[in-house]
Amino acid sequence: MSRDFVPSVLTANDLFEGDVVYLTAEGGWSRAHDQARLFHDADAASEALAAAQAQPERLVGPYLAAAHRGPNGPEPAHFREAFRARGPSNYRHGKQADGMCRN
C-alpha cells in the first residue's frame, strides 16, 4: 500500500554555495524556503526529483520535504525542515545575517 502524496518542496545541499537550497517554480535554486515550488502532484514532484538527482556535480542529497502553503509561500511541515530552512544554528551568519531567517 502506497502512502498518499502530501504537498512537498524539493530540497538539496548545493555544492557551490554549501547551503540548503530549494527548487523554485522557475526551475532555479533558492536559499529561501518561501521561494520554493510547492508540489501538489506526485508525478511532477518525482520528475523534478529525478532531474535533481541527475546533477551530482551541483547537488547533494536531493529529496522531497513535506510543506504547506503559508502567507508568504511554502512553509516547512516538520521541525527538521524548519531547522534546515533557518540555516546554521551556531553563529549569526549565513541566512541569519542576510535577513533571510523569518522564524
Specify the number of helices: 2
- As a percent range, the share of strand residues is 25-35%
Can you give the mean pLDDT?
87
Tell me the radius of gyration.
Answer: 13 Å
Sheet with the most strands: spatial strand order: 3-2-1-4-5
- Compressed to H and E, one letter per element, the order equals EEEHEEH
Which characteristics define this entry?
103 residues; single chain; 5 strands
Give an account of the 3D structure.
The model has no long low-confidence stretch (mean pLDDT 87). The protein is α+β, with helices and mostly antiparallel strands and 103 residues long. It is built from 2 helices and 5 strands, in the order βββαββα. 25% of the residues are buried. The chain has a 5-stranded antiparallel beta sheet with strand order 3-2-1-4-5. It has helices spanning 42-53, 79-86, and strands at 8-14, 20-23, 29-30, 59-70, 73-76.
Summary?
The protein is α+β, with helices and mostly antiparallel strands and 103 residues long. The chain is built from two helices and five strands. It has helices at 42-53, 79-86, and strands spanning 8-14, 20-23, 29-30, 59-70, 73-76.
Furnish the topology, listing elements before pairings.
Elements: E1 8-14, E2 20-23, E3 29-30, H1 42-53, E4 59-70, E5 73-76, H2 79-86
Antiparallel strand pairs: 1-2, 1-4, 2-3, 4-5
